[in-house]
C-alpha cells in the first residue's frame, strides 16, 4: 500500500497555527481591555477600603476663603435697626442665588442660647416668620441653605415657655362690659410641627414652608450637619444627653457619632465611636471623612455595600512631633495645664495632639489639623496648631 503523503496537510496545519495564535492574541487583548475597563479612572469609583495614602506632616495650611458669615446683610440689618429695635440681629444667611436672606435674632423672652429665624428678600423686605412659637432654635452656625438653594435647615428643640406673669395686687381688674385691650400684633399661623425635648434637625423649602423635622430621635442631641456638595445627603453628628453633659463638665468640645442623613430622613450610622472632628465631604460627594484621636476615617456615601477605611496615623504623627519639637525647640510642658495629660509623659512630645479639624478641597488631597483644645468658661485654649496632608490614591492592587 502506498504511503499517504502528508505534504498536502502542511499548509492546513500552518493555517491552523496562525489562526490559533490570532485567537489567543485576541483573547489576551480582550482580557486586557476588560481589566482596563474596570480600572478606576477617578477616585470616586474607588471604594473607601481600597484607598492608599501618604502622609506629609507639618505643611502649609490650606488657603482659607474670607469668612463673611459674620457679616450681616446690610438691608436686613437696617430693617432691624429702624423697625425692630427691641430684637437683636445675630446673623444673616444669604441663599445661594442671593434672592433670599435668613435673619437670626434674639428676643426678650428667648433664653440667651436660643434664637428665632425670619425670612427676608434681598432688598431687606420682611416676608414671614419661619419658626413656630413652640420651637427654639440653637447652634446658629448650623443654620444653612442646601447647596442647590432648595432647602433651609436648622437645629431646634421644644421651646421652654416662660411661666405667665401673675397679676400685680394693685392692678385693677377690668370692669364688666369694658372693651378688651387690643393685642399689639397678631401672631402668624403655623401648621402643627412636631417638637422634641432634645435638639433635632429641621428642614423646609426655600420659601420657608412645609417645615418638618428631618430627624426625630428623642434623647439624641444633633449638634452639627453639613450638606453634600450635590445635595444628595448630609453628614451629621449626634450624641446622648449624658455624653454631652460629660464633655461639657470636662471643658471638652462636643463629640458625636457620625451618620449619613438623606433628604427623606432615612439615616445610616457611619461609626459607633464618638468624634469631635466635624465630618467633611469629598469634593465629588462620594465620601465622608472624620477623625478619631489620631486616626482618619473615610466612609463611602453611597452604594449598595458601602465600605469604610481607618487610616492609623499615630506612629507617623508621633515621629513628626519629635522632629517638630527639635526643629522649633519646643519644651515639653510637663507642668503646664494647657497641654494634654499624655504630654506630661517624657516620651510624648508636647506638640503631639489629636486631630481636631479636616479640610477636603480636592479628591486626592485631604488636609487635617492637630491641636490641643480646651473650652474654659472664660476662654478657649487652642495651642500647637499644626497642619498635615494626606495624599490619597487607589491601592496598587486595584490598578492591576
Write the layout of secondary structure elements.
Layout: H1 10-38, E1 51-56, H2 74-83, E2 88-94, E3 100-106, E4 116-121, E5 126-129, E6 135-138, E7 144-145, E8 151-158, E9 200-205, E10 212-213, E11 220-227, E12 234-240, H3 241-249, E13 257-261, E14 267-269, E15 280-281, E16 287-292, E17 295-300, E18 308-312, H4 314-328, E19 355-362, E20 365-375, E21 380-394, H5 396-399
Antiparallel strand pairs: 1-21, 2-3, 3-4, 4-5, 6-8, 7-8, 8-9, 9-10, 11-12, 12-13, 13-14, 15-16, 16-17, 17-18, 19-20, 20-21
Textual characterization of the structure:
Helix content is 17%, strand content 32%. The protein is of the alpha+beta class and 400 residues long. The chain is built from five helices and 21 strands. A hairpin with a 5-residue loop joins strand 13 and strand 14. It is globular, with a radius of gyration of 31 Å.
Strand segment count: 21
Unreliable residue stretches: 1-25, 30-37, 181-186, 332-339
Strand content: 25-35%
**Would you state the CATH class?**
Mainly Beta
**What's the story with the biggest beta sheet?**
5 strands, antiparallel
Give, in order, the helices and strands. Answer: HEHEEEEEEEEEEEHEEEEEEHEEEH
Helix content: 10-25%
Overall mean confidence score, pLDDT? 84
The total count of helices amounts to: 5
Instruction: Please tell me the CATH architecture by its name.
Output: 6 Propeller
In CATH terms, what is the fold-level topology? Neuraminidase
**End-to-end gap:** 60 Å
Give the overall form: globular
Radius of gyration based on Cα positions: 31 Å
Compute the number of structural domains.
1
Q: What structural category characterises the helix and strand content?
A: alpha+beta
Amino acid at each position: 500500500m502506498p504511503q499517504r503523503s502528508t505534504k498536502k496537510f502542511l499548509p492546513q496545519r500552518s493555517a491552523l497555527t496562525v489562526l490559533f495564535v490570532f485567537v489567543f492574541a485576541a483573547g489576551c487583548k480582550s482580557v486586557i481591555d476588560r481589566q482596563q475597563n474596570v480600572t478606576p479612572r477617578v477616585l470616586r469609583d474607588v471604594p473607601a477600603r481600597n484607598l492608599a495614602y501618604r502622609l506629609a506632616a507639618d505643611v502649609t495650611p490650606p488657603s482659607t476663603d474670607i469668612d463673611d458669615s459674620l457679616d450681616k446683610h446690610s438691608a436686613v440689618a437696617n430693617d432691624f435697626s429702624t423697625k425692630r429695635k427691641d430684637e437683636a440681629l445675630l446673623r444673616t444667611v444669604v441663599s445661594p442665588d442671593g434672592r433670599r436672606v435668613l435673619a437670626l435674632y434674639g428676643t426678650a423672652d428667648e433664653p440667651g442660647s436660643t434664637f428665632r429665624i425670619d425670612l427676608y428678600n434681598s432688598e431687606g423686605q420682611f416676608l414671614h416668620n419661619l419658626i413656630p412659637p413652640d420651637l427654639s432654635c440653637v447652634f446658629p452656625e448650623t443654620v444653612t441653605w442646601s447647596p442647590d438653594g432648595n432647602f433651609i435647615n436648622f437645629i431646634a428643640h421644644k421651646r421652654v415657655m416662660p411661666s405667665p406673669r401673675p397679676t400685680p395686687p394693685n392692678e385693677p381688674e377690668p370692669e364688666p362690659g369694658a372693651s378688651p385691650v387690643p393685642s399689639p400684633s397678631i401672631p402668624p399661623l403655623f401648621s402643627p410641627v412636631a417638637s422634641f425635648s432634645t435638639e433635632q434637625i429641621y428642614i423646609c423649602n426655600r420659601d420657608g414652608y412645609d417645615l418638618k423635622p428631618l430627624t426625630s430621635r428623642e434623647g439624641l442631641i444633633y449638634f452639627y450637619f453639613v450638606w453634600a456638595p450635590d445635595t444628595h445627603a448630609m453628614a451629621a453628628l449626634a450624641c446622648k444627653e449624658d455624653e454631652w453633659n460629660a464633655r461639657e463638665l470636662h471643658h471638652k468640645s462636643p463629640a458625636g457619632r457620625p451618620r449619613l442623613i438623606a433628604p427623606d430622613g432615612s439615616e445610616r450610622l457611619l461609626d459607633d465611636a464618638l468624634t469631635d472632628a466635624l465630618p467633611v465631604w469629598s469634593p465629588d460627594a462620594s465620601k465622608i471623612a472624620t477623625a478619631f484621636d489620631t486616626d482618619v476615617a473615610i466612609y463611602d456615601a453611597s452604594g449598595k455595600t458601602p465600605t469604610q477605611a481607618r487610616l492609623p496615623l499615630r506612629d507617623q504623627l508621633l515621629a513628626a512631633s519629635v522632629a517638630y519639637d527639635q526643629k522649633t525647640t519646643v519644651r515639653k510642658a510637663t507642668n503646664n495645664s494647657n497641654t494634654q495629660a499624655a504630654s506630661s509623659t517624657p516620651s510624648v512630645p508636647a506638640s503631639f495632639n489629636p486631630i481636631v479639624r479636616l479640610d477636603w478641597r480636592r479628591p486626592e488631597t485631604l488636609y487635617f489639623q492637630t491641636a490641643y483644645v480646651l473650652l474654659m468658661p472664660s476662654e478657649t485654649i487652642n495651642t500647637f496648631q499644626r497642619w498635615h496632608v494626606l495624599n490619597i490614591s487607589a491601592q496598587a492592587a486595584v490598578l492591576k
